Amino acid sequence: MNLSSKKHFIYTLTILAILGIAGFLVYRYMLPALTVRPSPAGQPVTGRIPPPARPGVPPTPEEPGAAPVKIPPSEIGAEEQLLRITDFPVVSPSFNKAGDKILFYKKDGGDLYSAKTDGRTLEKISNLTVIGLFDALWSPERDRAVVRYLDQETIKAFLHVGTSTARALPSDIAALAWSPSGASLAYLVPEELRARLISIDRAGAQTKTIAEVPLRDAAINWITDDKIAFETRPSGLAEGFVFTFSRKGGNFTRILGPLFGLATLWSPDGSKILTSRTARGGTQLQLVVTDAAGRGIWQTKLGTLPEKCAWLDSQEFYCAAPSQILPSQLWPDDYLRGEIVSTDHLILARADTQRILDIALNGSFDVSAPLISKDKKYLFFVNRKDGTLWRLKLNP
């Protein structure tokens, strides 16, 4: 090969190499932009990136005025006995004041939804940006809720009024409860060895200190206009207590405890309490009905937690109970940490007659946050296994 041919050959190789590198770069950087991943069920993908949470500033709802987003109903029969309402995890479902719709927040993002009790209409009624949403406490009027979320390692809260107003609440709240009338909200602010019990009006504006209590960390329930209950955090490794505080008398009274694994659910009129307790070490979980003073009425022989129950009235209640409880399990600690996922059966019980009726629950569900519709026709619940909302027809 002469010199001229060698030069021509080298020149050609150089051109080919440049073209190859250029082609690779086009493929490497352009391909992701051209790739389209189809959304589930063929629905278009829409959304927006939420702004980062700012310390001390509550999430801000989008501007009102846009028409609510209707989501097409599922293809269901005339009246399914068991119906899945959502295909996404929800937080804190509750009926509206009229009782014909169920309200809930979407766990991922914080949007507020409603669904008719027939399960056929799901509607987005408020757009929120809430990162770390884990809880919402609805007022008795169901026109507002205290929404709590985790901002890094700090639990923060804001009052969500209607569909468009958010008012920040103190970030050092340990527990909170609405008054029975919904006119006030009470919350605990922990101090060194005690806590201040503070009330705030329903608008989130005027505050006043009700009392100082000798419990730094406790859940609270506003039972009657005068009586507020305090409950220590439940554990099978520590004895728990329930106290009541009279706003009129100013007295602090122990009504339950010391009991391992103690947790409660008060009846709507405050006359009875569903209480769970265990043996030392979180074994032998059992549910007991007591009166408002903590005196035993009925030891049901059911092994379940009050959070898996719902009162119908002062006598009747539904409960979901784990079908199997192992001796090695620590209740309620392991369950609350998510280390136990139960498969439940459903019962209807009456405290006055001490009768228990099994209710068909076809499927594998870990039931939480059960709700009974006003006409007692439906039971709504969250399946703790995936966070989805379900409806069970009670009178097929």
Topology of this protein?
Elements: H1 3-34, E1 69-71, E2 82-84, E3 90-95, E4 101-106, E5 112-116, E6 122-126, E7 133-138, E8 144-151, E9 154-161, E10 165-169, E11 175-178, E12 184-190, E13 195-201, E14 207-213, E15 219-222, E16 227-231, E17 239-246, E18 252-266, E19 272-278, E20 286-291, E21 296-299, E22 309-311, E23 316-322, H2 333-336, E24 344-350, E25 355-359, E26 367-372, E27 378-383, E28 388-393
Antiparallel strand pairs: 1-6, 2-28, 3-4, 4-5, 5-6, 7-8, 8-9, 9-10, 11-12, 12-13, 13-14, 15-16, 16-17, 17-18, 18-19, 19-20, 20-21, 22-23, 23-24, 24-25, 26-27, 27-28
Segments where pLDDT lies below 50 for 5+ residues? 1-13, 15-77
Percentage of β-strand residues = 35-45%
Class inferred from helices and paired strands: mainly beta
Mass-distribution shape: globular
Report the helical percentage: under 10%
Profile the largest sheet. Answer: 7 strands, antiparallel
Number of separate strands: 28
Number of helices: 2
Strand order of the largest sheet: 15-16-17-18-19-20-21
**Intertermini distance:** 93 Å
